[in-house]
């Protein structure tokens, strides 16, 4: 069983890259499993990565490099026994330390285990281009990588891409640096798959760190379900865009230089709308996906630097509930960590299994 760890900070494009890589490997006849780790209580990316011939598992409410190590071990052992994948692709949280994840997997006692080179994906438009400006936990992600992928070169200015490359070289001169667009699947992105086919090299063990504490990231997730919803695609896109813009602006009032990830997913009978925003300066990115859905719901995952968790929760929930009411949608709020559906606008409060 070969393990591929593909990490990077929130919003760097990990999910898009993994989606393309897993599909190519599966089409080539490989038996693929994916483990998606979300820091919040409710996952979003696992649903995006699901397909009939690729096994996907989600681990939520923590980070597999520190607080969810036991959950990761159980998941890997179960996959090995029941699914027998040739390749397991791991998408850690955006604050995880990939080298620490590898060290933990190495001592789990899994049979015939091998590793691809550790990949850290970087969005060149997210940070300053001086090494001293990089948060400590992101610096660790860069230093632990064997391959550094500068993503989104199709939209980032060439001078920013060049400055990012110089900065990454300064932080980790031994890493192979690739510049690509995972979204477009360009030639350089195809080269990433070739580099992943060679064995990875273990680095000397480092002192264990708690990524959640070091990153100063607060996270909150929430799920709203609908029994009936008459939104058409245009109104669904508008709901996502308006919600993201409002949340971004309200978070910016508390931390003008916040970085992180606010992700929304709206499922309705014949389509899905996904959107995200990753900083105070970014315009929300929204994607429309035609697909049949049995459940009608709105999911949000937020993970933001230096904003108190209670304030983040208030911002995202009050914004979403106001937007849903403006759209004349009856809804129930479901919180995994409380195990209840909260009573809103006269709806019945009840226990749920999840």
TrEMBL record:
Record-annotated CobW/HypB/UreG nucleotide-binding domain positions: 3-178
CC per GO annotation: cytoplasm
Gene3D superfamilies attached to this UniProt entry: P-loop containing nucleotide triphosphate hydrolases
Highest taxon of source: Archaea
The name this protein goes by in its record: GTP-binding protein
InterPro entries: CobW/HypB/UreG_nucleotide-bd, P-loop_NTPase, Zinc-reg_GTPase_activator
Organism from which the protein derives: Methanosarcina acetivorans
Pfam family, one: cobW
């Amino acid at each position: 069983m070969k393990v591929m760890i593909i990490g990077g900070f929130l919003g760097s494009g990990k999910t898009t890259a993994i989606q393309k890589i897993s599909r190519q490997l599966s089409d080539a006849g490989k038996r693929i499993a994916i483990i998606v780790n979300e820091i919040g209580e409710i996952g979003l990316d696992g649903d995006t990565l699901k397909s009939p011939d690729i096994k996907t598992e989600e681990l939520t409410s923590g980070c597999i490099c520190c607080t969810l190590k036991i959950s990761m071990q159980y998941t890997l052992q179960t996959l090995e026994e029941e699914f027998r994948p040739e390749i397991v692709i791991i998408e850690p949280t955006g604050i995880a330390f990939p080298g620490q994840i590898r060290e933990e997997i190495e001592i789990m006692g899994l049979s015939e285990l091998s590793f691809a080179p550790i990949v850290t994906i970087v969005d060149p438009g997210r940070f300053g281009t001086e090494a001293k400006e990089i948060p400590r936990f992101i610096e660790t992600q860069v230093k632990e990588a064997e391959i550094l992928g500068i993503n989104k070169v199709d939209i980032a200015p060439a001078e920013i891409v060049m400055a990012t490359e110089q900065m990454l070289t300064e932080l980790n001169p031994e890493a192979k640096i690739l510049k690509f667009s995972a979204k477009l699947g360009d030639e350089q992105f195809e080269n990433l798959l070739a580099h992943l086919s060679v064995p990875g090299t273990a680095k000397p063990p480092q002192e264990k760190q708690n990524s959640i504490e070091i990153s100063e990231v607060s996270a909150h997730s929430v799920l709203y379900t609908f029994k009936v919803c008459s939104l058409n695609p245009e109104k669904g896109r508008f709901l996502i865009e308006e919600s993201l813009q409002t949340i971004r602006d309200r978070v910016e009032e508390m931390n003008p230089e916040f970085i992180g990830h606010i992700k929304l997913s709206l499922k309705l009978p014949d389509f899905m709308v996904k959107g995200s925003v990753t900083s105070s300066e970014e315009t929300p990115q929204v994607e429309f996906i035609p697909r049949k859905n049995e459940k009608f719901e709105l999911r949000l995952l937020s993970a933001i630097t230096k904003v108190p968790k209670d304030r983040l929760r208030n911002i995202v929930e009050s914004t979403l509930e106001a937007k849903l009411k403006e759209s004349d949608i009856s809804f129930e709020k479901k919180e995994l960590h409380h195990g209840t559906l909260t009573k809103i606008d006269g709806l019945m409060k009840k226990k749920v299994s999840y």
